[in-house]
Amino acid sequence: MGILYVLETHVHADHLSGCRDLGSVTGAVIGIHESAPVVFPAQLLADGDSLEMGNVHVKVIHTPGHSPDSVCFLVTDKSRGPEAWFVLTGDTLFVGDAGRPDLHGRETARKLAGELYDSLFHKLMRLPDDIEVYPSHFGGSACGRSLSGKPHSTIGFERRYNVALKPRSREEFISFMLSDLPAQPPEFETNRQKNLGLVPVPI
Question: Strands 86-90 and 71-77, how do they pair?
């Protein structure tokens, strides 16, 4: 079995991505949202794009908020049935919380928080309750505040119990998501520049 794609949910800030190394070793195509200003070869993905890998169908859902280029991947295993099975939510939706919208600077945090509201309530929360949720992080990550130690969940469980998904107006949600945020670790911006390919990464 070969690796066809290395898919990025967004340009990461909390760690160095191995996508280029893995792509180089396997010959796989790197996929990332078209708004990510990467300077290395990649297949630029848009909202609604589909990727086919044998029996697996992957639909791209653009979910800006944690970052402008955030996407989720809705996965269907056609050998099991025609309906989607799970969604890879990156740093958009965690178990228990949602991704912080302030990592691109204070000047864009409010705009991104509003986009996160739209991504969560107008896109992800329109998925069926039984869709399984697999985020990029669980408890201990600096990319959110109230992450559970549980590594996966379902749309229905998060709809009922996720602190970020409680009924709020858009403005109330923005205020909530911008409150009580921990300081951004100093290495985040450097990591982001490295993951864009703008700064060399020593081997």
Answer: antiparallel
Sequence-separated (6 or more) residues with CB below 8 Å from residue 161: 96
28 CB contacts (<8 Å, ≥6 apart)?
2, 3, 4, 5, 6, 22
Model-level pTM? 0.93
Per-residue pLDDT of the chain (203 residues; tens, 9 = 90+): 789 999 999 999 888 999 999 999 999 999 999 999 999 999 999 999 999 999 999 999 999 999 999 999 999 999 999 999 999 999 999 999 999 999 888 889 999 999 999 999 999 999 999 999 999 877 656 556 777 778 999 999 999 999 999 999 999 999 999 998 888 888 999 999 999 998 877 65
Domains of the chain: 46-180 (3.60.15.10)
Task: Determine the Cα–Cα distance for residues 161 and 165; give it in Å rounded to an integer.
Answer: 8
